Amino acid sequence: MKDRKKLILMIFGVVLGIILIGTATYAWFKWRSSESINFNVTIDNSSGLTITFVGGNNITGTIGPTLTKEEGVIKNFSAYTNGLNVPMNIWLKLNTLPSELKDSTFKWELHKDGVLLTSGSFSTSDITTRTNNNTTDYYLAMADTVGSTTVNYTLYLWIDGNLPNNGNMASKNIDFDLYGTVTS
Fold first, then answer.
1. Could you report the per-residue pLDDT of 116-163, keeping only the tens digit for each?
2. Closest CA to 94 of 132, 133, 64, 135
3. What is the 3-state secondary structure (H, E, C) of the chain?
């Protein structure tokens, strides 16, 4: 009887341990996932501009050549105001961009409500930059008007595998922050 009680307690303990480990692992992966987290940033209180980044405003990962932009890195975000129409600039803060990726085959496209707004590459001759607190910020779109109706944006980042590119570009890590500013 005593051994049976120990066996039941041991089985209960093992099952409880598995459940605890499983839920802790799930919670950790859910916390680490950026797919379902919305992150709101109010840019300017007077304009009421709010940008919602799906999964936060940070873009990190390892990038390699792909045949289509849809196979690369995709970042969705939306913007709206408290009723005023305000011009918004969209920027990428480059925390990490290896020199091998500063090439015309590392491309980006910014879509507004499913329509191409602007595009370019990370070639140093193809992008407008500014230095902001010792970081380089790439300019994606200028003075795009945002009002009280939510505007949805999609940013695509990819190495165009349809073009010849430097073999050293593959498996490079990127770390960017996406943000907007209000222009007067």
1. 988 888 886 555 666 666 666 777 777 677 777 788 889 898 988 898
2. 135
3. CHHHHHHHHHHHHHHHHHHHHHHHHHHHHHHHCCCCCEEEEEEECCCCEEEEEECCCEEEEEECEECCHHHCEEEEEEEECCCCCEEEEEEEEEEECCHHHCCCCEEEEEEECCEEEEEEECCCCCCCEEEECCEEEEEEEEEEEECCCCEEEEEEEEEECCCCCCHHHCCEEEEEEEEEEECC
Topology annotation, domain 37-182: Jelly Rolls (2.60.120)
Alpha carbons 122 and 70: distance in angstroms, whole number: 18
Query: Model's pTM, two decimal places?
Result: 0.69
